[in-house]
Amino acid sequence: MQDGRISKRLVRALVGVVALGLITASCVLAVAIVREEQRDENLAQLGRACAGLLPEEQLAEFVADDSAGVLEEYGTMLDPGQESRALLDCVLSWGSGVWGPEAQVRVRAEALLEGRDHGDAKAPDDPGDFVLPLPPGVRGSTGAKERVAGSEVSASLWVACPNGLRGRRLPSKELHVTVALPSTAEFDHDVTPGERLDAARAAVRVANWVTERQRCGRAPIGTAGTAVAEDRETPTELCRWLDPKALGFAEGSGWKGDSDRTHAWTFDGDGAYLPQAAFCAGALEGYASFRDEMPVVSAEARSWSGEAALGAYERYAADERVPARPARPASASFTYTGLPPVLALWAESVCDGGRTYHRVAVTPDLRDLDEKDPKLTVAKEERERFSADARAVLDRYLAAEGGWAVRSHCRDTKVLGEVEEWGH
Q1: CB contact set of 66 (below 8 Å; sequence gap of 6+)
Q2: What is the separation, in whole angstroms, between the first and last Cα of the chain?
Q3: Nearest 5 degrees, angle CA 124-CA 128-CA 131?
Q4: Pairing state between β 333-335 and 342-351
């Protein structure tokens, strides 16, 4: 009798366990189905968002399955059109972290108005880091930054539109596009070239969408090719005038007294001509000691024309890095602060874009200094050579066939003076 009761209890217990297991399995399956449905909805939202311009394949791994995506978008080019300062402005987020979304995509396209301060929308001084080749009239840059959790990769484009852009009351002939995508890298310096390429292609896709519908007056920008190397062993076509050997700068054949070590010049600069601005630079890579010879180991040239000219000059003036008026006499010594000693030479021209400022800069190699007495006295003839080196860079830059200044028909050039950035 007792054994019968135990058997019945055991059967009931087993039935309960099986039932609980079935309920648990059903719950797990139900949760899985809900998550799958949520992810499908989020993927569909990703495909529709931002006028369907987002790179779905690259972003799929960031799409959440436990919460709905949050989409905020507006702009005069959306359907229906809206009153907005932007042609297109779109933010898509997934997951709610402690300090913000777990992953976020941002896209913005806007018409830049002449004579207005656009802050971060200004074209970069160093536009050579866009990882795709760009045609004339287009500038670009890519970047990466850390978030509270993880990092993001971004790309920006500045596109000249000969036919102008609609949707603003005031005329505009320049389009600015920015794209920011989540990255799998934990830190910004670990963002891969492939992710930079994804961001660059996304920015190009947005720019092409806008320019086609706005009848901007330019052909689509291409997205073919692989990432352009940031450090080049030879200058770009626009920067071929920057020849260290012809200018008598430090040679890249090796250290003095150490034949086992070598160093070479690498170059950066514009890959495409843009009427508003120009940039070329070169530097001797690696450590080199030239004792008391102090040759130039870094040189660069920049130009800003038209609306860009005044803003650029004002930015440098705010840091007291424009020529003094009246001009100060050249110094024969300076205090070393651990930063490269730069001698900059400024000039002003009239070019196709209007009033134009040029800035060239050279950095000589200095011998090691005594930390107890961090002061270097430069002999008069050496200081004069620094000036001659800077002037040689300016003259070569202005006269270079195929260079920016010649292509912009710069004329009536006036040298404004030097700026000794000793320790700035």
Answers
A1: 35, 38, 95
A2: 99
A3: 115
A4: unpaired
Residue 370 scores a pLDDT above 60: no
Residue 262 CA to residue 46 CA, distance in Å, equals: 50
> 389-424 b/e with 16+ CB inside 10 Å = b?
bbbbbbebbbebeebbbebbebeebeebebbbbbee
Higher pLDDT, 160 or 333: 160
Q: The tokens of 372 are what?
A: 């107890």
Q: Which residues, 6+ apart, have CB-to-CB distance to 246 below 8 Å?
A: 396
In whole angstroms, how far apart are CA 126 and each of 66, 129, 143, 151, 277? 42, 7, 12, 22, 10
Phi and psi angles of residue 421, each rounded to the nearest 5 degrees, phi first: -90, 55
Q: What's the CA gap between 222 and 200, in Å, rounded? A: 11
Tokens of 73: 């978008």
Mean pLDDT lowest among 162-166, 225-229, 324-328: 225-229
Where does residue 367 rank: exposed (0-12), middle (13-18), buried (19+ CB within 10 A)?
exposed
Please provide the size of the chain in residues: 424
Radius of gyration of the chain from Cα atoms?
29
CB 125 within 8 A of CB 184: no
- Percent of the chain at pLDDT > 70 equals 76
**Nearest of 160, 133, 156 to residue 145 by alpha carbon:** 156
Nearest to 304 by CA among 279, 271, 268, 273: 279
- Dihedral Cα 141, 145, 151, 153, nearest 10 deg: 0
- Give residue-wise pLDDT tens across range 297-320: 999 999 988 877 887 888 888 888
pLDDT classification of 19: cutoffs 50, 70, 90: low
Q: What tokens does 14 get?
A: 């087993």
DSSP string, 370-419: -TTS-EEEPPHHHHHHHHHHHHHHHHHHHH-TTSHHHHTT-EEEEEEEEE
Contact status, residue 263 vs residue 297, Cβ threshold 8 Å: no
Using the predicted structure, report yes or no on whether residue 387 has a pLDDT greater than 90. Answer: yes
Q: What is the DSSP letter of 223?
A: -
Question: What whole-number distance in Å separates Cα of residue 11 and Cα of residue 346?
Answer: 95
Dihedral angle sign, alpha carbons of residues 221, 224, 227, 229: negative
